[in-house]
Design brief:
CATH class of the largest domain: Alpha Beta
Strand content: 5-15%
Structural class: alpha/beta
Number of helices: 10
Largest sheet: 6 strands, mixed
CATH topology of the largest domain: 2-enoyl-CoA Hydratase, Chain A, domain 1
CATH superfamily of the largest domain: 2-enoyl-CoA Hydratase, Chain A, domain 1
Distance between the termini: 17 Å
Number of domains: 2
Number of strands: 9
Length: 278
């Protein structure tokens, strides 16, 4: 699954997939067709079962300037809210847009977002849906929507307070101020700051290799448990863990992992089973 706005590469030897935004001349802005294309690409990787980790990055000076402004001038039909029927349709359309980034959150594999330059508006919604964020020293993050008279609506307001200091997330949402790389690191929004785009890409891929070397079964289970705990209380999450662990506990998988760990070698794990076609 490809799109003019991004390219996809998959290394079958490691299980590392890369999705790279590739319209630097447009600051990697997101047009209406970008959203379902991204959703379908991520879900296709998930369905295939061969991706163990996905790295999302971008070419050019900036990660992404978010949704293209011409979208608000009529590029999306869902923006019509003139009457009750149109508002009902608006809700359906917005849920479908949200789902495009939720596909990242719901994937069985971890997703690393590597940000250089601006991560603006809708791009921050995308980054917030990823498991891990790393950035270059020139990176900055901003809830741009407040500047154009709207509340951010594709996940930033819901996800950021669970990732970083809630008060700072609210300040970003209310002021639209730019959060620089060092402050993003201190607040927990990113896990590392690298000196430039080249070092950023190398760091993201090194992190991806560490993840891809682990059991994809244990990795998928860990992500399911972490996501459930994020959205539920401790008691509920522990109850979910008992059921989840009983479903994915695999002695053979553990034996393979232990043997490779003791021998200081890379284990040869089977990929996840592909999701049956609908």
């Amino acid at each position: 699954m490809s799109h003019p706005a991004f390219s996809i590469e998959h290394d079958s030897a490691t299980g590392i997939s890369q999705l790279r935004l590739c319209r630097p001349e447009r600051m990697n802005t997101m047009e209406p067709t970008f959203f379902p294309a991204l959703r379908d690409a991520v879900r296709a990787m998930d369905d295939a079962g061969t991706t163990r980790v996905l790295v999302i990055s971008a070419s050019g000076k900036h990660f992404s300037a978010g949704m293209a402004l011409d979208v608000f001038a009529g590029g999306l039909g869902l923006l019509d809210t003139r009457n009750a029927r149109q508002r009902l349709a608006f809700q359906t359309g917005l849920r479908r847009l949200m789902d495009c980034f939720s596909a990242i959150d719901e994937a069985r594999f971890p997703v690393i977002c590597a940000v250089q330059g601006g991560c603006i508006g809708g791009a921050l919604d995308l980054a917030a849906a990823c498991d891990i964020r790393v950035c270059s020293a020139d990176a900055f993050f901003t809830v741009q929507e407040i500047h154009i008279g709207m509340a951010a609506d594709l996940g930033s307001l819901q996800r950021l307070p669970r990732i970083m200091a809630p008060g700072l997330a609210r300040q970003m949402a209310y002021t639209g101020e730019r959060l620089g790389a060092d402050r993003a690191l201190a607040s927990g929004l990113v896990n590392a700051v690298l000196p430039d785009a080249e070092a950023l890409q190398a760091h993201a891929l090194d992190l991806a290799r560490q993840i891809a070397a682990k059991s994809p079964l244990a990795m998928a289970g860990s992500k399911l448990a972490l996501n459930h705990a994020r959205d539920h209380g401790t008691a509920e999450s522990l109850a979910q863990m008992t059921l989840l662990q009983s479903a994915i506990f695999d002695i053979d998988e553990m034996s393979t992992a232990i043997a490779a760990w003791q021998a200081k070698q890379t284990a040869d794990f089977a990929p996840l089973v592909a999701t049956p076609a609908e």
